[in-house]
Amino acid sequence: MRIRLFGHYYSAAIVTLAVCEALLFVAAMTAAVALAFRNSPMSLWVHIADYSGAQLIFGPVAFISQLSLGLYTTRQRASVVGVGVRLVLAMTAAVAATTLLFYFFPPLAVWPGVLVTAAGLSLLGSAVLRLVFSRVSDGQAFKKLVLVYGSGPRAASFQQLRRASDRRGFTLLGYVCPPEDPCLVPQAQVLDASQGLLSLCDRLTVDEIVIALEDRRLSLPVDELLTCRLAGIEVVDYVSFMERETGRIVLEALNPSWMIFGEGFRRGTLRTVTSRLLDILASLLILTITLPLIALVAAAIWLEDGRKGGGVLYRQVRIGQHGQPFTL
Fold it and tell me: What is the mean pLDDT of each successive set of 10 residues along the chain, which is 328 residues long?
């Protein structure tokens, strides 16, 4: 199952995992503070409240670190060891970035031991969460039950989805063969819809019907699909389904109407402002973390080429929005 956020589709399992880990990182810093002051005569809640700023800094920084290392993508190709290495690198980067932020905001700082403890708890908790979610997401908890209406080349392309990430969001129940379509799908998966499409969907508890006809003008059962739609069953065309589940557009099946009526290419004030704000905040965060390294690299470039007339900064003219050139 996919969730639409900010104009993009995301796996429900990945979104749930991201939210759980974001809360975990805040809870890990809270637990680290509690462990550090467990023998204090004062109430632990007083110490936790005093270091609430550190919790609100470490949580987002740890989350962004894991996000930047591709740990929230369904296109994950790394092995278990590879994911473990990325988790360690993400926590190391989070500790470094949080330490740098504490340097600029001393009132929010915690002891180094507390920060390391929070990172260790986050790493352990994240590993356990990912193990649980890998078992759950491979089952039926986050999957839609899908029925394909069609049996031609487009319907047959479902058999070519070999990657686990492409099939993670749905379970294919079978195909309904229209009389005008050639039957290119496995006969064992062809379903009998002689009692009506709605009756078949009710029997199989179908969540979504994918229209995969070669020519919808010839054999599209409008009345039956409308009945299914009114019964709460989603109906989606083949191109939109493939874009949502695989992240790719099937160009050979694309038609102008999909481009005109599709959900993409939308622009609004809220989306423009939030996108720009995110770009600025992420750039400032990365610039703050990498500024010492950038200065060293710039000095090295100047020592090698700058004294000979070469510039330290790379410049190139690019084409931007509305075809306007700008200097990168």
Answer: 60 81 92 85 77 86 87 65 86 89 83 90 91 71 81 88 72 88 88 90 90 80 90 88 82 75 68 80 82 84 71 81 81
Q: pTM score, two decimals?
A: 0.57
Beta-carbon contacts of 319 under 8 Å, excluding residues fewer than 6 positions away, are: 325, 326
Question: How confident is the model at residue 137, as a pLDDT?
Answer: 64
Three-state secondary structure call for residue 149: strand
DSSP alpha helices (H): ranges in the chain? Answer: 12-36, 44-50, 52-68, 80-104, 112-137, 153-156, 197-204, 216-219, 222-230, 238-246, 256-261, 269-304
213 close to 149: Cβ distance less than 8 angstroms: yes
What CA–CA distance (Å, rounded) separates 195 from 186? 21
Kindly report, residue by residue over 181-236, the tens digit of the pLDDT: 888 899 899 999 889 999 999 999 888 999 988 877 767 889 999 999 888 888 99
Domain ranges for the chain: 2-137, 144-261, 269-327
Domain 144-261: assigned CATH number: 3.40.50.20
Query: Whole-angstrom distance between the N-terminal and C-terminal Cα of the chain?
Result: 39
Is-contact 142 116, C-beta < 8 A?
no
Rg of the chain, C-alpha, whole Å: 26
Mean pLDDT of the chain: 82
φ, ψ of residue 304 to 5 degrees: the values are: -85, -45
**Distance between CA atoms of 241 and 194, rounded to whole angstroms?**
25
The token pair at 63 is 């989350």
Q: How many of the other CB atoms lie within 10 Å of CB of 65?
A: 25
Residue 87 amino acid letter? L
H or E stretch at 194? none
Taking Cα atoms as reference points, which of 76, 74, 62 lies closest to residue 3? 74
103 half-sphere exposure, CB direction, 13 A CA radius: 8
